[in-house]
Amino acid sequence: MRNCYYSNLIEGHNTRPRDIERALAGAELEEETRPLALEARAHVIVQRAIDEIHRIGTLPRPTSVAFLTWVHKSFYDEMPDEFRFIEHPDGTQEPIVPGRMRQDDDRQVAVGRYLPPHQRASRHSWTTSTIGFRLRHGL
């Protein structure tokens, strides 16, 4: 839960640990803290799933497209509706499709205060990371 708390702070989402615990327990949440608490809940649920597949020895390469899209899908499948869209600087919105990687013709996005690299750079980075991971781990 600590990882979730600090990760959300980096994204500008100040969710109190007690709200995360309440969301995980399925307790009623205050309306103003509900969306962020449910976002944190999604984060913890997916991290627990990753930990479990690692524990049983079936964790795929963490840099693989299959793994990254599974994480994205799992995370957004758990997200509250308030966080299932992208809002662009011009005010337009588009839905987030769980598990779908950004395509070259997609608009650039921001995640909280974070501006990720363009799609083409991301794809190159993933390929480089995957090759490096395989070499370091003899795969």
UniProtKB/TrEMBL annotation:
InterPro entries membership: Fido-like_dom_sf
Gene3D superfamilies associated with the record: Fido-like domain
This protein's name: Filamentation induced by cAMP protein Fic
Protein's organism: Primorskyibacter flagellatus
Lineage: Bacteria, Pseudomonadati, Pseudomonadota, Alphaproteobacteria, Rhodobacterales
